[in-house]
Amino acid sequence: MNGADFERFQASAQGCGVLFYYAGEFTPPVIAAAADSLKARLATEDASGPAKRKLFSTFVEMAQNILHYAATTPTDDGSAPAPRGAIGVGREDAADAAGHYWIVCSNAVDVDYVPRLADKLNAVRAMSLEEIKQSYREQLRNPTHGADDPISKGAGLGLLTIARDASAPLEYSFASTADPAARTALFHVRARI
Amino acid sequence: MQPIKAERTTVTPEITFLPAESRLVVEGECYPENPLPFFNPILATLKAYFETHKPSQFEAEMRLQYINSASTMGLRSLFSLFNEAGQRGTDVRVLWAYDAEDDAIEELGTDLVEDFHNVLLEHQPFNA
Hints:
The complex is a heterodimer. Chain A has one domain: Heat Shock Protein 90 (2-Layer Sandwich). Chain A is 42% helix and 21% strand. Chain A has helices at 3-15, 28-43, 49-69, 114-125, 129-140, 158-165, and strands at residues 18-25, 84-91, 101-110, 171-176, 184-192.
C-alpha cells in the first residue's frame, strides 16, 4: 500500500464514519486491549454517556462471541488456531440516523450452524424492547442453560444484551467465503446504537 | 477467616471482603471472557463464611460501572449465596450503586433479586 492507496483507504473509512476498526485474532488480551482503546476513542466523541456505554458493551459482547464461536481453520502444525474476525464502529451518516452509531462484527461460522443462528437472530429481531428484557430476566434465572444447549458456551444472554442496547432491530447476513470447498460462511451482525 | 483483597484489573473489579466487619465491596468493571476463575474463589470463600460464621448481618456494596453478560451469571450465583444466608437468618443488605444514566446496571440490580426475597437491595444512583 503506497501513500495514494492509503489516502483512498482513509477516505473510504471517513465516508463510512469509521471511529474504530479491528480485524485479526480475537484472544482475551487482544479483546481487553481493543476494548480499552475503543473506550479512549469514544471519550473524545461528543456522544451521550449511555450511547458510549452501549457501544462499549456491544463491542465486548460481539468480541466475546467471536472468541467463543468463530469457526477456525486447523493450523498446519496441529496447534489450536486463534479465532479470527473483525469489528467496526462508526457514526451513522444517513440524515434519518443523525446522532446514531453503528457497530458491525464479522466472523466465519460453520455452515451447519447457519439455520440455528438465523432462527436465534430472527426471534430476537421480532421482540419489542420489553420482550427482550423479559427474555433476559428468564435466561438470568435459568441456571440449567447449557445443559439443553450443547453449542452455546455463554449464559445465553449475549445476543439479548446486544439487542437491548440497540435502537433498531439487529441486522444480520451470511455470505459465502471465497473458498467454495470451505464448510464455513461469513456471518455479519449490525447494531444501530 | 482471612480477608480478601483483589486488586482491580482492566477486566475485573476490585474486591474487598472483610469478614470481621461482615462486609463485601465490589467496585469497577467486570468483563472477563471466562468469569469462572474470577467468581469461583469469591463464591467459595463467601459460602464457607456464611456456613461457618452465620453472621447476624451482612452488607455488600456493589459499585459496578460495567458488567458483561457472561459475568451476570456469576453475580446471580453471588446473590443466590446472599439469599441462602438470608434464609438462615442473616440480615443481608446490598447497596447497589450505579451511574444515574445507566439503566442497564440499574435494572440488573432489580432483576438479580427478583426471586431472592431474603436480600434487601437498596438502589443508590450517583452522577458520574
